[in-house]
């Protein structure tokens, strides 16, 4: 009963594939990538149907149920890791730094990033606000530059759903 059987491995692998495809499809839909989401969904449903057939034929053994759960958890993890690697979409990185810090925007611009900066008033006085729109895969590079040049900066970033062409057109990113 508790010896290794090939069916256990098959259940785990099928569930990893299914849940990974499911996770990626959902992320692609959220990111507006309808064509890729549709392609992934076809693979997802095929793997699901194959897996469902195997699992329903072998549900009496509790080890198979554990294998199913293990595959599900690993699929969620793998889907998340793949999404991190793909880093789809855009983010805005905003930093509030020391007043009149003009070197940081210059440094970011010299690295090819579009930067908007302005002076703002806050509770403790004047500060410089820097805003950078970047592809998500470049977010950590921008944050590292900010932290290196302005270690006390208050930094936030948030994902964008869409934006219009204008100054920050998609062709310039």
Automatic annotation (TrEMBL):
Belongs to the UPF0316 family. One of its GO terms (cellular component) is plasma membrane. It is a multi-pass membrane protein. InterPro entries: DUF2179 (IPR019264), DUF5698 (IPR044035), UPF0316 (IPR022930). It comes from Bacillus salipaludis. Keywords: Cell membrane, Membrane, Transmembrane, Transmembrane helix. Residues 23-79 form the DUF5698 domain. This is UPF0316 protein E2K98_14935. The chain crosses the membrane at residues 6-28, 35-56. The keyword Cell membrane applies. It comes from the Bacteria. Residues 114-163 form the DUF2179 domain. It is found in: Cell membrane. Its main location: membrane.
């Amino acid at each position: 009963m508790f010896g290794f059987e090939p069916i256990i491995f098959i259940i785990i692998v099928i569930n990893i594939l299914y849940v990974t495809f499911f996770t990626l499809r959902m992320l692609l839909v959220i990111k507006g990538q309808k064509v890729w989401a549709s392609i992934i969904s076809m693979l997802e449903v095929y793997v699901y149907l194959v897996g469902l057939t195997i699992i329903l034929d072998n549900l009496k053994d509790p080890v198979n149920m554990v294998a199913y759960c293990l595959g599900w958890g690993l699929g969620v993890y793998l889907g998340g890791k793949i999404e991190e690697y793909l880093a789809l979409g855009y983010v805005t990185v905003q930093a509030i730094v020391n007043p009149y810090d003009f070197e940081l925007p210059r440094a970011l611009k010299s690295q090819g990033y579009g930067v908007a900066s302005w002076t703002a008033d806050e509770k403790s006085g004047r500060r410089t606000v820097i805003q950078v729109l970047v592809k998500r895969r470049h977010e950590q590079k921008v944050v590292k530059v900010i932290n290196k040049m302005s270690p006390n900066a208050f930094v936030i970033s948030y994902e964008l759903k869409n934006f219009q062409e204008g100054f920050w057109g998609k062709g310039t990113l």
